[in-house]
Amino acid sequence: MALDLVILGPPGAGKGTQAERLARTRGIEKISTGDVLRKVVHAGTEVGRRAQSIMDRGELVSDDMMIEIVRERLHRPDVAGGFVLDGFPRTVAQASALDAIMRGRAPLIVIDILVPEPELVRRLSSRLVCDDPQHGSRCGGHLVHRADDNADVVRERLKVYHAQTRPLVDYYRARPTFRSVNGAQPPDRVAPDISAVIEEMGSSAVWPRCDEGV
Question: In terms of residue numbers, what domain contains 25?
């Protein structure tokens, strides 16, 4: 059975870190919507050209376009054995569309990483990134603070998260494949907690398939 996962949580919760670990340890594809969007733009596909035009105007890519991009990505053969989604869905509309995309597959395991807001502000306000966007923090380059990582901007980002994305938790909460984990720990302690809930759900009751309703 394919292992299909969604990682939820506010900015600074460690979603990307845990998604990378899960992909590596479980042998599944990590799908970051930011990465996918950059790739379709770089590839010059029709949807990529439309996305580039929207971003060039300084606008946000719409739900419909992100759904189209994710639908295409999830229909590729390399995700037949499973995937972990980081950054999608961000809205209830996207979550509903994802349910439709997933028809015929095993149900999503949805993991919400919980971190108190003061800890999120501390993490994000002290975060350093490489000043060369083509490289990461391990490249040996110069590390700088992101412009959107000062405390006031971080709090505003968290407000947006609670207003727009937090309703996803209510959307998924009643499902037998939803769990929350304590993210206010070092990543090396969060990872086994996530693995434990995956194993727990995998060995529990038989789940309905996505085409049987949720």
Answer: 3-115+169-212
Domain CATH number, residue 39:
3.40.50.300
Written as six digits, the tokens of 88 are 């999608």
Q: Is residue 53 part of a domain?
A: yes
pTM recorded for the entire structure: 0.78
Question: Three-class SS string for the chain?
Answer: CCEEEEEECCCCCCHHHHHHHHHHHHCCEEEEHHHHHHHHHHHCCHHHHHHHHHHHCCCCCCHHHHHHHHHHHHCCHHHCCEEEEECCCCCHHHHHHHHHHCCCCCCCEEEEEECCHHHHHHHHHCCEEECCCCCCCCCCCCEEECHHHCHHHHHHHHHHHHHHHCHHHHHHCCCCCEEEEECCCCHHHHHHHHHHHHHHHHCCCCCCCHHHCC
Q: How many domains does the chain have?
A: 1
Per-residue pLDDT tens digits for 57-104? 877 788 898 999 899 899 999 999 999 999 899 899 999 999 999 998
Q: Which residues are catalytic?
A: 15, 90, 127, 146, 157
User: Phi/psi of residue 178, each to 5°?
Assistant: -105, 135
Pairing of strands 82-86, 3-8: parallel
Crossing angle of helices 92-101 and 63-74, rounded to 10°:
30
Could you identify the residue written with the tokens 């419909």? Answer: 64
Please indicate, yes or no, if residue 128 is contained in any of the structural domains. Answer: no
The set of residues, in sequence order, having a beta carbon less than 8 Å from that of 206 and lying 6+ positions away, is none
